Amino acid sequence: MTNELIIIRPSYELKEAIWEYRQEYFDFGETQINGSCGIAQADNFDEWLKLVLSIEKDKLRKNVHASTFFSVRKTDNKIIGSIQLRHSLTPELEKHGGHIGYGIRPSERRKGYGKQQLLLALNEAYNLKIPKVMIICDKDNIPSIKTAISCGGILTCENIYEGKAQQIYWIDLC
């Protein structure tokens, strides 16, 4: 499969496309958008974008720096998914969160985009000199588990976080 996606950082120029991406989740009855730095809870795009840009270099969020990206399909420039790459882990993120959170918009799921998007995020992690990446998936989220495994994820343990069973995968980037 050829790589149909690129990843880009959010910007003011993408405001309309990002807001449309967000709305699709709501239209499908979903209230959480993984990998988006909380866009589902944002009321103001400018404030959300300011937060996203600041936590990459200046401000810490949950005691780490993080980069947020959107995956965009090359053929039509449609936002397909969102990714947040945390540059390090805290004890809390080791229990719930990991290095990478990701999501694919509801209308584009089951098309192989998750793997493409995760591979692009892993390349970013490699560029940040992160030697090993942790991904945590809810045990009942089979598509996310398959995506992690397809990108080299090795199941290392399972746990319960806030009453939900999770699996922890590690991907070696060395």
3D structure, described in words:
The protein is of the alpha+beta class and 174 residues long. Helix content is 32%, strand content 28%. The radius of gyration is 15 Å and the shape is globular. It holds the Pfam family Acetyltransf_3. One of its GO terms (molecular function) is acyltransferase activity, transferring groups other than amino-acyl groups.
Number of helices: 5
Main sheet summary: 4 strands, antiparallel
CATH class: Alpha Beta
Classify the helix fraction into a percent range: 25-40%
Looking at the overall shape, the CATH architecture is 3-Layer(aba) Sandwich
Oligomer: single chain
Main attributes of the structure:
single chain; 174 residues; alpha+beta; Aminopeptidase; 4-stranded antiparallel beta sheet; 3-stranded antiparallel beta sheet; 5 helices; acyltransferase activity, transferring groups other than amino-acyl groups; Acyl_CoA_acyltransferase; GNAT family N-acetyltransferase
Topology:
Layout: E1 5-8, H1 15-27, H2 45-57, E2 66-73, E3 79-86, H3 91-95, E4 100-104, H4 113-127, E5 132-138, H5 142-150, E6 154-161, E7 164-172
Antiparallel strand pairs: 1-2, 2-3, 3-4, 5-7, 6-7
Outline of the structure:
With 174 residues, this protein is an alpha+beta fold. It has helices at residues 15-27, 45-57, 91-95, 113-127, 142-150; strands at 5-8, 66-73, 79-86, 100-104, 132-138, 154-161, 164-172.
